């Protein structure tokens, strides 16, 4: 944990120092390297589990909820003016938690997962579309919280005691948006390699692929669908399915509110339940910054 924290903070500090030096040397010329004031170069993947979100979803026919709190921020941006290529350096900090609904508006927290890291993104305009890529170096740790403890029995629920679950990993994804279609469409493929993980027997490599399709009405209302399949191995090789369909109210590439229905099938996204198969449909909302 201390090693990954040192690597991430050192990388950001060094990049900021290099930026100051470059800015001083380029004061009288066109500045291609700059601080980012708003927006993300790589738009978060709708159906990908590990993305920055602010929102809530509740499972249908179940009293479980998922709460997402966090954000990703691009810090520096560099433009290759001759090639039309843009690159950025950013940071990710967010949590995703599982809550249980009870009477009197109480929501005990069963499990909480913490995600933080740095990312490097790139985007290039092609003659037939837009090519984007993102590389992240990140850490995730998972924990049981008070909601998973049964105080009346003085034991952990479902006979699942807390375990040490953490992972440091590299995640790379490449997406493509064709220009020929009249509707916004994005397809992508990616892979994750965990260079350190507890429990140690978990396979270190996984892959995923997905797509998103939107339909813009008057620029303010955007119906959309998204799907991602993740190939992974826990007890055996399996595919995690994550689908979402909804409506975004607001600018297509700007701030807005997403109202959606989602479907999930596969191993749990929460580290403390990493070997538990889940299948559910949920209703939710997201706030886009």
Structure write-up:
It is a single chain. With 289 residues, the protein is mainly beta. The chain has one domain (2-288): Beta Barrel (Outer membrane phospholipase (ompla), Chain C). The chain is 8% helix and 58% strand. The protein contains one helix and 15 strands; from the N terminus they run αβββββββββββββββ. A twelve-stranded antiparallel β-barrel has the order 2-3-4-5-6-9-10-11-12-13-14-15. The longest helix is centred in the first third of the chain and has 24 residues, at 2-25. 23% of the residues are buried. Residues 23-31 have low confidence and may be disordered.
Helix content: under 10%
Q: Unreliable runs, pLDDT <50, ≥5 residues?
A: 23-31
Shape: globular
Count the E strands.
Answer: 15
CATH architecture: Beta Barrel
Structural class: mainly beta
The CATH class assignment is Mainly Beta
Q: Give the strand content.
A: over 45%
| Most strands sheet | 12 strands, antiparallel, barrel
Q: How many helices does DSSP assign? A: 1
Number of domains: 1
Radius of gyration: 20 Å
Q: Please state the oligomeric state of the protein chains shown.
A: single chain
Indicate the CATH topology. Answer: Outer membrane phospholipase (ompla), Chain C
Across the major sheet, the strand order is 2-3-4-5-6-9-10-11-12-13-14-15
Helix-strand string: HEEEEEEEEEEEEEEE
Distance between the termini: 30 Å
């Amino acid at each position: 944990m201390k090693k990954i924290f040192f690597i991430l903070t050192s990388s950001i500090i060094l990049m900021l120092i290099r930026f100051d030096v470059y800015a001083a040397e380029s004061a009288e010329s066109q500045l291609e390297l700059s601080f980012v004031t708003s927006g993300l170069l790589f738009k978060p993947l709708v159906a990908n589990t590990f993305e920055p979100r602010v929102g809530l979803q509740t499972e249908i026919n179940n009293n479980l909820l998922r709460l997402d709190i966090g954000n990703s921020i691009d810090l520096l941006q560099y433009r290759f003016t001759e090639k039309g290529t843009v690159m950025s350096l950013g940071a990710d900090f967010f949590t995703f938690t599982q809550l249980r609904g009870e009477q009197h508006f109480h929501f005990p927290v069963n499990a909480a997962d913490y995600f933080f890291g740095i990312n490097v993104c790139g985007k290039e305009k092609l003659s037939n579309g837009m090519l984007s890529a993102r590389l992240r170096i990140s850490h995730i740790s998972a924990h049981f919280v008070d909601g998973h403890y049964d105080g009346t029995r003085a034991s952990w629920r479902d006979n699942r005691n807390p375990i040490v679950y953490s992972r440091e990993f590299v995640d790379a994804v490449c997406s493509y948006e064709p220009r020929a279609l009249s509707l916004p469409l994005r397809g992508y493929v990616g892979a994750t390699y965990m260079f350190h993980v507890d429990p140690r027997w978990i396979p270190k490599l996984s892959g995923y692929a997905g797509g998103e399709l939107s339909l813009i009405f008057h620029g303010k209302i955007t119906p959309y669908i998204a799907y991602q399949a993740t190939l992974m191995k826990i007890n055996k090789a399996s595919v995690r399915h994550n689908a979402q369909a909804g409506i975004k109210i607001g600018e297509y590439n700007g701030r807005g509110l997403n109202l959606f229905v989602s479907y999930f099938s596969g191993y749990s996204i929460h580290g403390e339940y990493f070997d538990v198969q889940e299948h559910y449909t949920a209703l939710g909302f997201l706030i886009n910054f």
